[in-house]
Specification:
alpha+beta; six-stranded antiparallel sheet; five-stranded antiparallel sheet; 14 strands
Length: 354
């Protein structure tokens, strides 16, 4: 059998197997482990910095037209998480399709986008259940991460028979590049702190995507600045929000941060593999000296030595142009153009003081 015939055979098997999953329809509803509850709402809103009082104060919620405290709609997924040792149900399409691609060699995964619809606020005491179905499978496609397949699942959260939230979730499953390909496609990365960058593979790293609301931020990163959006009352906010108080032709107001702060929270990522990064690595939520909090990789330190309150400084990582670079005069970097990412380094480390 030729290489082309082998590829076609693999693709056919994938389509046949995923068609069977799709034909199975939606999975049976799986209830969350616990009813919606105040302590979990408090932990979640505190972690993301949402101070809306209708999530914690009955009087404030009644003043807003509710019967009492309500849960943030975006917490729908929280109520049905399986927990550390939970297992997917046998009819869960996400697990079934992922296994099909794993068996075919498409073992790496990255979430590409999700579209959510919230039908109403939920309330403490209600019990949420989730049901999922496979909507579509598209591939094989050649992507910047390697050959892969896109597939979309639809998750529906219900309370009893009432749908309270929905989400279409799209995933790319792809073949990781071989070691020889990685070496050949790995141009150098330059650190603004002159720190080592051999833990990063420039050819495999995922570029940030700028929207109209975030373009000023990523333009600042390219200029080695951390720009924090400023509201009309002078307060600072990050991540950037739609500036509905300004005409679309006006530019975003911002303040350039000093680039120093402390670790507010962090996680050590051990799995799955993330394109271009060496496992394990640390993702830190840094509270800047200006008060805003910003997520990013914390480099240059053993994960075991990271602690809450650790002083850090920003590091800018410049990625070189590739052979397929687009128009060098374009205002937004295209595929192959040079680009820049920010990260953190411990304050006082060799890289941070160079």
């Amino acid at each position: 059998m030729s290489v082309d015939q082998t590829v076609a055979s693999t693709a056919d098997r994938i389509r046949t197997s995923t068609d069977a999953v799709r034909a199975g329809g939606a999975s049976a509803p799986v209830p969350g482990r616990d009813p919606i509850n105040g302590p979990m709402i408090a932990n979640w809103t505190e972690a993301i910095g949402d101070g809306n009082p209708i999530y914690r104060d009955d009087d404030a919620a009644r003043a807003a037209g509710w019967d009492g405290v309500v849960a943030p709609p975006a917490m729908a997924q929280v109520w049905t998480m399986r927990g550390l040792h939970g297992a997917r149900s046998d009819d869960d399409p996400l697990g079934a399709v992922s296994q099909i691609f794993d068996d075919a060699g498409y073992t790496s995964v990255v979430a590409t986008n999700c579209d959510s619809t919230y039908h109403r606020y939920t309330r403490p005491g209600e019990h949420v259940a989730i049901s999922s179905e496979l909507l579509d499978v598209v591939g094989p496609k050649t992507t910047g991460l390697g050959e892969g397949w896109f597939f979309t699942t639809r998750n529906v959260w219900t309370v009893g028979d009432e749908v309270v939230a929905e989400m279409n979730f799209r995933i790319l499953k792809f073949r990781p590049p071989t070691a020889s390909n990685e070496s050949a496609a790995a141009p150098g990365v330059t650190s603004s702190l002159a720190a080592p960058t051999d833990d990063l593979d420039a050819g495999a790293m995922m570029r940030p995507t700028a929207s109209r609301d975030t373009a000023f931020f990523w333009a600042g990163v390219a200029d080695h600045e951390l720009r924090i959006q400023r509201r009309p009352d002078g307060t600072l906010v990050h991540p950037p929000v739609p500036a509905l108080w300004k005409h679309h032709s006006e530019t975003t107001d911002y303040q350039v941060a000093a680039g120093t702060g402390t670790v507010y929270s962090f996680v050590v990522h051990h799995a799955p593999r993330v394109p271009g990064r060496t496992l394990p690595f640390v993702i830190a939520l840094v509270e800047l000296d200006e008060g805003a909090r910003m997520l990013g990789q914390l480099r240059g330190v053993d994960p075991a030595e990271v602690s809450i309150g650790m002083p850090v400084v920003v590091e800018f990582l410049d990625f070189p142009a590739e052979s397929n670079a687009a128009d060098p005069d374009a205002t937004v970097p295209g595929p192959g153009d040079p680009w820049t990412l920010y990260a953190w380094q411990p304050a006082g480390s060799k890289g941070a003081t160079t």
